[in-house]
Amino acid sequence: MDSNVREVFDLVARWIHLIAGIMWVGNSMLFNWLDRNLEKVEGRRKEHIGRIWMLHSGAFYDVEKTMLAPGEMPKVLHWFKWQSYTTWMSGIALLFIVYYMGDGSFLVNSGGPVSPDLAKDLGIGILVGSVIFYDLVWRFIGKTMERQAQVISLAALVGLVWACTHVFNGRAAFIHVGAVLGTCMAGNVFLHIMPSQRELVKATEEGREQDMSLSLRAKQRSIHNNYMTFPLLFIMLSNHFPSTYGHKYSWLVLLTMMLTGALVRHILNVRFTFKAWIPALATTITGGLIALIYFMGIRGGSSGGGGPVEKVAFSRVQIVIKERCMPCHSEHPTDNVYTQAPKGVMFDTPAQIKAYADQIKVQAVVSKAMPQGNKTNITEGERDLLGKWILGGANIE
Known about the structure:
Elements: H1 3-35, E1 48-56, E2 59-66, H2 82-100, H3 116-144, H4 146-167, H5 170-205, H6 212-238, H7 242-245, H8 250-270, H9 277-295, H10 314-324, H11 350-355, H12 357-366, H13 380-391
Antiparallel strand pairs: 1-2
Helix pairs in contact: 1-2, 1-6, 2-5, 3-4, 3-5, 4-5, 4-8, 5-6, 6-8, 8-9, 10-13, 12-13
């Protein structure tokens, strides 16, 4: 596919994914917040669960959560499903457009443990297999032994993160973990939440009592989705920060931030009954930040130490930049994927190279995220050379 056409598809799919994701996450946050703030009203019918008053957009909202009596079906009933389906479909489309339709440079590193074609097969297999595993665990074990299902799921998640970061390159590894979470969430809606709600509607229409276990089953999967939301959002953001996915121990970075996100979500969920939620939230966020700063290499992660700074001639640096970076980052790229310099970053002149010295340090020296998939086969010695040049002041004379 022509690179310009693919970029258009990428843009449209990403735009749809963002809009639908905001709607889905917003609905999830709102309804979980409602459930934790409902107040039981005495004297209401037996189906009554709770009620809440809210103020928004210049008016008052009176919201009641209830089961329905047999035959008591409202004329208009609003469902919430297309946001989740659209988010998932656009996300899978992005996975294929960005990672599977190219030459594999976004998927695996050059000279990595597997070929791009095998990596594509493994990616699809991991996605399908992980979702099936998760669903089976919670269909059977989680039905009666929730704690055991939680332990199994967390252990499987650790294994998934480790495996992905040892098969794919950094960005692709993070995105595949995110794709697994997103597919599990969409699967919860499609396979459990929606069928349960359809059965509740059918029972009411047929004049039968509603089965409360269906409501509880749907709510359990909805809670799962709620806890997966923050870790998934971190994964979406992390692609803009190579020090996360490009770190030597990127799997620990990802697990740390996923755990932090899930704990933050938990504290926000229980804050109405947990008096010490503010200190707990502050401690969790602080701990996550400290761990992230450590893993991102703030503690001495760059090339060069405390000894004398080696003087590196700019001519040597320019050769490395020309061979390893300029196939993409130039006014006229020669790369078979990019027809324009990514993010407008160009290294055609010495002044341009010096202007981006800090980014070169982060991308090519510290995180080693660039070149993407090490497509141009930059060596460790060349990375070290760039690091020493930057440490010495990035002189271009």
